[in-house]
Amino acid sequence: MKDREAPKDDAQGLHNKAVGKLAEVSRLTVSAVKNGRSCSDDTGWKIAAALDVDLAEILED
């Protein structure tokens, strides 16, 4: 039986679902932002606050 790869975590070891719950947004929204999609200012601030980082850090290219 093959070992499955663990889901990729963000820099702080949180999965999209956990970040979404902390930020009060969906895990799909977190995934989209992590993959370079745009988001509203409000959503960006929520995710940044949940990760305890500056907004610029999650919006960098």
TrEMBL record:
<dbReference type="Pfam" id="PF01381">
    <property type="entry name" value="HTH_3"/>
</dbReference>
<dbReference type="GO" id="GO:0003677">
    <property type="term" value="F:DNA binding"/>
</dbReference>
<protein>
    <submittedName>
        <fullName>Helix-turn-helix transcriptional regulator</fullName>
    </submittedName>
</protein>
<dbReference type="InterPro" id="IPR010982">
    <property type="entry name" value="Lambda_DNA-bd_dom_sf"/>
</dbReference>
<feature type="domain" description="HTH cro/C1-type">
    <location>
        <begin position="17"/>
        <end position="58"/>
    </location>
</feature>
<dbReference type="InterPro" id="IPR001387">
    <property type="entry name" value="Cro/C1-type_HTH"/>
</dbReference>
